[in-house]
Please model this.
Amino acid sequence: MAKLMYRDAIRNTIFQEMQRDQRVVVLGEDVVGGMGTAGGPEAIGGIWSTSTGFYEAFGPDRVIDTPISESAIMGAAGGLALAGKRPVAEIMFADFIGVSMDQLWNQIAKFRYMFGGKSVCPVVIRMPCGAGYNAAAQHSQMIHQFVTNMPGLKVVMPVTPADACGLLRQAIRDDDPVVFLEHKFLYSMTGEVPDDPDFLVRFGHARLARAGEDVTIVATGMMVGYAETAADDLAQDGIGCDVIDLRTTSPLDEEAIFDSVEVTGRLVVVDEAPPRCSLATDISALVAQKAFASLKAPIEMVTAPHTPVPFARELESAYLPSPAKIAAAARKTLEYR
Amino acid sequence: MQLNREALTRAYRQMKLIREFEERLHEEIQSGEIAGFTHLYCGQEAVAVGVCEHLSVVDKIVSTHRGHGHCLAKGCEVDGMMKEIWGSQEGLCNGKGGSMHIADIDKGMLGANGIVGGGAPIAVGAALSSKIDGPDANGRLAVSIAFSGDGACNQGTTFEAMNLAAVTRAPAIFVFENNHYSEHTGDAYAVGTSRDIASRAEAFGMKVWRADGTDFFAVHDCMREMLEYVRTPGNGPAAVEFDTERFFGHFEGDPQRYRGEGEIDRIRETRDCIRKFRDSVTGAKLLTDADLDRLDAEALDAIENAVQASRSAARPKAENVLDNVYISY
Model:
């Protein structure tokens, strides 16, 4: 085990997979950085420092620094994959998926099914996402809600450095397109990461971040930490919470949610995205449909409001779910009778 | 054409206002009072002002993430902009937008933009609207300007916008400000047409211009010719590439390791549009150093007042999150 930052866990995992498999290539804006400048290649090494040293180790054929052209990045990743490579593409901010949506949604996501199962498309699209930096409406968004809705994509949202490593390795070795969502606020978090170069975390298996028998809290991304803080606060009052980190929203570990709700009878779903047609509503619907008899109280959802992400500090704080809002929602389920 | 004293004074005042606005932000950001990402326009002032000095309120502009200069040049209020960047409820966008999303529709400023390449299609839409409205009493069309950089010139949206404007003969002007860096990457690497952006517009059949973007007079002359052409019904769009310089990083906090040794000192020394303007007008005895010093002081005062006003301006409240929506949940 080594103690690593989340960003370094990601960097190291891609690096190891590039060493292991010649077919793994990286592409994206400034993933090298400094190309065509006096400072020269690798002046940046990716704005998130997740590709530092790659260009020096693997060269320009396998570490492809692209112009600002998200549509071409996305589509080229699809083409590389159809031609036998295993691209790991970076869209610098998840928000920029908007520019590249056709290549993801109409092309990459559909190849396997639309071509009658005759193709595989082993693409990983890494996208830093989420609010918390006052980066405003076009640099702060969550996108898991709509990529989870797209048949053909696997959607991964690692929270711990170990999961960032194991899930990313699984994503790179996976034969299907994977949208890999790294919450920007998690990059500097540290944690133990297994040294095993074949350490994998399988998709569709949630992680129990806190265990308790009174309320189930389901969360993803940065919201998992918020839910843990809420659970710790509630524990002071003798309230025990299961905090379920979904890890992947497609495939979804329904059983982990049902098993927990069967014990607690109370569910709070936390989602950084707006509330309608969301992961929060989806999980609420699943539980209402398939675990109705377990419920002792109405399901609570703690989400962002149905607005773009606002800029000002006070507004962004009000926009985001908070540990206090999550704890209040949990207490509300306990007060129901 | 020779500019009169009044026009020269106005142009210098605007350039200097932008310069001081950005230099002050560069300092203030380090104090931590200003949140979010800020991309400074320092070094490119002659472009924004050389373009916008020709425009009236009926003309539209669409800007970029590096938009403060375009906003000020198009007439956005200094205090309202500064307050917006401070995240105040009194800001031009009530603190909702911030540095990257300043807009003032009444002034014909249709928005800065957080998405590289996001603006050009919007500018074409505004140009098509002008075409529908038709020429004014003098037979001239309102125009729409798409400001883009050497980064945005590589986006499909920009290519599509140019083609749409060309085939519809929309009165749009694509202003490419080549500051030689798309974020952290050089135009020598990223701009495939041998660093020549104007040739791309030319390939769509557009009439193009090229000029030194650090020379206010070159920009201003060039825009006069372009506007003469584009305001004439039936001619359609045009494009221009201005060779310019970015004095600061891509964003505030960028360590700029991609810069060459002494590069910033060199461009500030030899490619400073404000210094060149000053040398030019004093050399020709059109304005005196005393005239310009007075304008410098006015700019500094205006910025100081805007900063002080921003510090004491009303902050947004949590409930303001749900303002400006048509449904609240």
Q: What stands out?
A: The longest strand of chain B covers residues 172-178. Chain B touches chain A through 57 residues (CB under 8 Å).
